[in-house]
């Protein structure tokens, strides 16, 4: 399906995105502010982030996932070259960065020291405190992997696991937030605020759209925490699919609401969580509905799994869940 994105959609997206990023960045744009674009330029998240930084007058550098770090590029990677202030990407990239840092951790005493620093910094973040000693002695080197100037990491496109989000916050010392949006909504619907440390949370609405939850089977707004299919309306929402009026009529209501197919849950503070897909649920032998994509995002963190290498299988006649995991010889024999 081709999504028709107008100039009006783009302007609304940039304004909404910029307002939420205001707390991540300085109001007066510093001369050295930079951003590195490494996702395909047709990816709606990259399109949105790139335009925000072009509007700010920042330097935008271009790379790709294979040349981001020093381990895969010579004389150094894109992150070292451009030293971005904000890093926007998809969970697969951040899972890879996490595994790269973990793979270089030393053994013995130094590993125990890292683990202690990690736990103490995690506790400090929960209390709104900092850990300058550990930042200087333990975390200074891994932070250079991202260029040394990153103030915030934004993830979208798929759910980021709680372990990865926590690891990035602790080790890289910056705010790590998830966002939610689709190509049909020009990327931006919700984004976590600066140093919102809630895990598996997609944040609150940006100013450019409105959201409602529509009751569907097994997901109701009358649940203890309101849940339902996320429907979005506003100036960021496309008018439809290119030359596909039937598809447009299926996804868009007469009064402008776009049905995403994603199931959201409203939290007490007004933020949201994605808890599944309307059509990506499977029922096991206990009559429980299992969100397949949520489990896949957890299981893919296993050391044996290749990125995007997990498929969850649920049989309504079986009491267990099966995962098919794609690996390679190096991981299997390590």
Automatic annotation (TrEMBL):
Signal peptide: none annotated. SUPFAM superfamilies: Acetyl-CoA synthetase-like. GO terms for molecular function: ATP binding; long-chain fatty acid-CoA ligase activity. Gene3D superfamilies: N-terminal domain of ligase-like (3.40.50.12780). Residues 1-242 form the AMP-dependent synthetase/ligase domain. GO terms for cellular component: endoplasmic reticulum; membrane. Belongs to the ATP-dependent AMP-binding enzyme family. The keyword Nucleotide-binding applies. It holds the Pfam family AMP-binding. InterPro entries: AMP-dep_synth/lig_dom, ANL_N_sf. This is Long chain fatty acid CoA ligase, putative. Keywords: ATP-binding, Ligase, Nucleotide-binding.
